[in-house]
Amino acid sequence: MTDTTAYDWRSFLLRWSGEWADSLPDDRARDEGDEAARQGRWLGFPPASEERIAAMEERLGRRMPPSYRQFLAVSDGWRHAGGFVWLLAGTEEAHWHANESGLADLFEEDAGPDERWEAGIWRRGLQLDVESDVTHVLMDPEDVDEDGEWAVYTWSSWRAAPPERHADFLAFMRAMYREFHGLGARRRDGEPEFVNDTTRALDAHVEEARLEALRGGWEQALEALDEARGYGRPRAAGLGDQIRVLLGRTHRSSYEELVTDARYAPELLPPLVAEHAARSYWDDSTLKVRLRGADADLMALAGAILEEMRAGTYRYTAAGPFGEAVERARELARWGDTDGAWRTLADAVPLWEPLGPDHLVPLGWVADLLLGPLLTPERGRELLSTPRAGQRGEAPAPTAGVDPGGLTWLAEPDPGNRRTSYRFVLVEGVGPQELPGRLADGDGTVLNEPMTSWDARHGSSRSGREFSSYDDRALMAVGRTGTGWSFAFDDDPAPFHRQRFVSPAAAAGAGTRAVVVWSGLRTWHGEPYFHLSVARDGVERYAFTYADGRLRTSGEIPRALDPGRFFGDPLDAAAVERPLLDAVAREFGVALPRHAIVNGRLHTFTTRSWTRPPGDGESYAVIRLS
């Protein structure tokens, strides 16, 4: 709701009129009325008397809303409300639209109850546009606030958008004033610069907002930048978009003129190109549109970054101590320690060196395939709240880590409830890069480049040429648990076959300890199952398997892991999973990094089969693709 009580309409309209007159080239007046308005520096008309307003209300059968009445008492109509309404109605011209345009029929077609009420504006609305570029302005007598103000709706046939709502007539006129400024800021060649007291004040606010953002006051800065952006002020959108990206508002961020400035391109181009690359349905020509005005060198740089994004090879770099922290953070992230990676990056922000005065915050890392997944809304706010680039301010409290620790998060339903079974191997005292040598066939298996689980699985299925009903080679993501163990994790395992299953624990535990867990307690297919095996120095020490409604054990199982404590009759499979995973985590002091596994990118490799070869008399199928 706009505060319309005792608004100084005359000062507002005089300022608007003077700025319009100063901005209009000598040969651009539409008619004699425009020329008279320019010379008189007044876009309005003589004020309407109370008697004239009352006569209008009697004619229309309704008392007019307060802000419109106040306006009429200063000017009985208005020229050039924004850029597309050339004449706005006063007491004589305002009339009920009564579906004069026929648009009610168009908007009501196939509409639900709410949409039909909204479309009713074309039947009940008070029309205020008299001359326009196919732009309608209607006040709605049924959309009324507690002060008696009527909402104003505007709609243009050439805009692919529904009618735009303004809370009241004053809010509408303010929006039109901003539109006048926004259009005025886009001067044609040879036209005088659009400068006045309003633009000078707004530009000063933009500069103060820039400094406030660097001091960590991003909320106040963004509010000022958004206001200036509404008036079309240079720099406002480019500065504000840098803040918005770290808040997760990446859709159609353009950075306007800053992104085509060679100084800022290395930081601003990557997130813009990453958004484009993520939308496979966008033609590459749309990138050229978003980089309108860029020279050949900058377009070549954008093309090179786009190729790297699509190939999965883009790597963010930065100068100085912050750049060194970026490299350390990437190393942590690629092995699953996303909390550690974020802390490393965030702690170095005060040391960051901007590329120029309008560079507010490091941004290129958001597009980095390893570092980008670190960003959450809370972390974005922490980074924005950190004083930097030599500015002083209060440092924010560090955000809490996003990883819950332990293993029990695996028992929580994921979006879509897709992860109903999973398996993992934990190996103590070895690096994740050593896991292929323990879990894969031959010595030549190497880790794939870090990628998401989806991309790894999709790429693996495309490269596969032979599939066996007895072969169960797992595609596993690897990393560190942060407690002296490495892990290999498979979030989409093949069906569990107890009779043919061979635990990889012994091979993985050569010279150390290894733990294997395979859970299908929430599986959609078949009976629930769970397997745990533990090996030391290449020998399986104990194991248990629950499958087919039976429990099978071997070796001396520690009391904390005694399956009898978890598996009862009848079995509540969902209730078993969480305490069982918690017991495993406590027994070995291990955890799996949820954020890296679910949202990040990890190295992967393919293990040897988790099932034994077929025995005599056992049939199997092999599919070979040529």
Question: Could you explain how this protein is built, in words?
Answer:
It is a single chain. The chain is an alpha+beta fold and 626 residues long. Helix content is 36%, strand content 16%. A hairpin with a 5-residue loop joins β6 (135-144) and β7.
What is the arithmetic mean of pLDDT? 92
Number of helices: 22
Q: Regions with pLDDT < 50 over 5+ consecutive residues?
A: none
Strand order of the largest sheet: 16-15-14-13-9-12-11-17
Give the overall shape, derived from the CA principal axes. Answer: elongated
Distance between the termini: 68 Å
Task: Show the helix and strand layout.
Elements: H1 9-23, H2 32-40, H3 50-60, H4 66-72, E1 78-81, E2 85-88, E3 95-96, H5 103-108, H6 113-119, H7 121-124, E4 126-127, E5 129-132, E6 135-144, E7 150-156, E8 164-166, H8 169-184, H9 197-214, H10 218-230, H11 236-246, H12 265-277, H13 285-290, H14 296-311, H15 320-334, H16 338-347, H17 377-384, E9 422-428, H18 435-439, H19 453-463, E10 466-468, E11 473-480, E12 485-490, H20 505-508, E13 513-519, E14 530-536, E15 539-547, E16 550-555, H21 573-588, H22 594-599, E17 604-609, E18 622-624
Antiparallel strand pairs: 1-2, 2-5, 3-4, 4-6, 6-7, 7-8, 9-12, 9-13, 10-18, 11-12, 11-17, 13-14, 14-15, 15-16
